[in-house]
Design brief:
The chain is of the alpha+beta class. Helix content is 47%, strand content 21%. It has eight helices and twelve strands. It has a five-stranded antiparallel β-sheet with strand order 2-1-5-4-3, sandwiched between helices. Strands 7-9-10-12-11 form a five-stranded mixed β-sheet. A two-stranded antiparallel ribbon has the order 6-8. The longest helix is centred in the middle third of the chain and has 66 residues. Bound molecules: adenosine-5'-triphosphate and magnesium ion (MG). Magnesium ion binds next to helix 7.
């Protein structure tokens, strides 16, 4: 081998290796060797280990303006032959046959793909109207098949890694949850126990006002405990998809005002500004949708205290958009992707109680309505939650 070829290969190796995305890496691999090895289409077929059917993992058309996917059907037969013969397959029109339609007589070259030492698919090249594949071409194709297999193996490893990360995060969240939940359950129980024990003491007389005060605390803490347990059950039901929804046409603007009034009776300090456009009715479960709004209100009260909350609605034809914008501290960008995960709470100093279930429940409810929920936040400016729901399709 001469030095020029070697440094050429070295250059390609570096280019391919630098690509993060496996498809981009394959593009580089095939395009960069095209000076020596010309073809029209290239397709990678992988065998589904369960169904044994061939799936197209990658396809690219280089010439003749044909869509790679459309040509993939030709390659599939060759790929199947490669898998059954367990070796390279070449299919070319018979020598000396008069050229009819170039498209009707493709020159096909199929190479086996060994992924993690297992024959898992085939790399197929297609040339319309020849020329035939020379020994050099076969060598290059073989090099490309080894390389493609390595890139696909890298993709599989990356995917497995991402999944593992997500499972590990989930496990960490579960661990945190156990400590959060025991704390969250113990606090109200501690109050209830403490104040009822005080009231029951034989050696002390409590005046009426004090008795009422103690009983009020017991009452409120019992409510808090009930809410917490309901949230836990609800999130379990939502996760197992056993929660029943009762759909009926609802007027979102009226619903928001109802919930806001209720919230304001308990939290008169919260300033709510409305920016409501009239909306078409939405087919939804009003109890569940109210619950979504309640959590957004409760979050604004907890995480953006003394900020004004602006609620907007907007009609987008077949969809409606609702926004809850506060002017609190905001949430660092790194944490935003996890906000709607079960048990997730933004890490940091914790003075505010919560279990990290609220937004998870919101998301599940919104998704059951075929809608979406997302968040935008700017540090020191505020956080806005958006919800989009489809308008009632029957109206
Ligand atoms: P729960 O709602 O179950 O009582 P929670 O309020 O902690 O507990 P979520 O409602 O799911 O849980 O919110 C998740 C996290 O998102 C919160 O812990 C908080 O850190 C952050 N967060 C939510 N809303 C806001 C907001 N408006 N401003 C700043 N941070 C917010
Ligand atoms: Mg919450």
């Amino acid at each position: 081998m001469d030095i020029t070829t070697l440094s050429f290969l070295h250059h390609i190796f570096k280019e391919v290796q630098q690509k993060q995305d496996w498809k981009a890496a394959l593009d580089t691999l095939f395009v960069s060797l095209r000076g020596t090895f010309v073809f029209d289409n290239v397709v990678i077929y992988l065998e589904d280990p369960r169904t044994k059917s061939l799936e197209i993992a990658y396809a690219r058309a280089m010439g003749r303006g044909k869509a790679a996917e459309a040509d993939a059907a030709w390659g599939e037969r060759v790929a199947a032959d490669v898998l059954s013969a367990k070796k390279m397959v070449i299919k070319e029109p018979k020598k000396g046959t008069p050229i009819r339609d170039r498209m009707a007589d493709p020159y096909l070259l199929g190479m086996p793909l060994y992924i993690a030492s297992k024959l898992s698919g085939a790399l197929v090249f297609i040339r319309f109207g020849g020329p035939e594949y020379s020994d050099l071409h076969v060598e290059i194709a073989s090099l490309q098949s080894f390389w493609s297999a390595a890139l696909i193996e890298r993709r599989d490893l990356q995917e497995a890694r991402t999944e593992l990360d997500s499972v590990q995060r989930q496990m960490r969240l579960q661990d945190d949850f156990v400590s959060t939940i025991s704390h969250e359950l113990r606090t109200p129980l501690g109050f209830i126990k403490g104040y009822s024990t005080s009231l029951l003491r034989q050696d002390t007389e409590w005046d009426d006002a004090t008795q009422r005060e103690f009983l009020n605390i017991i009452d409120e803490e019992a409510d808090r405990l009930t809410r917490l347990i309901e949230d836990m059950l609800e999130s379990a039901r939502l996760q197992s998809k056993t929660l029943q929804f009762k759909f009926a046409p609802i007027r979102i603007d009226a619903l928001i005002r109802d919930v806001a009034t209720r919230v304001n009776t308990h939290h008169p300090e919260l300033k709510i500004e409305f920016n409501l456009e009239s909306l078409p009715p939405v087919l939804g479960d009003s109890v569940r949708i109210s619950q979504v709004f309640e959590n957004l209100f409760s979050n604004a009260i907890k995480y953006a205290p003394s900020s004004k909350l602006t609620i907007g609605t907007k009609s987008l034809g077949k969809r409606v958009r609702i926004s809850f914008a506060d002017e609190g501290e905001g949430i660092p960008e790194d944490f935003l992707p996890f906000l709607f995960e079960r048990f997730y709470r933004v890490p940091g100093e914790r003075t505010v109680t919560g279990t990290g279930l609220g937004l998870y429940i919101c998301k599940q409810i919104v998704m059951a309505h075929h809608g979406k929920i997302w968040v935008e936040s700017v540090l020191d400016e505020g956080t806005t939650f958006f919800i989009e729901l489809p308008a009632d399709p029957t109206l």
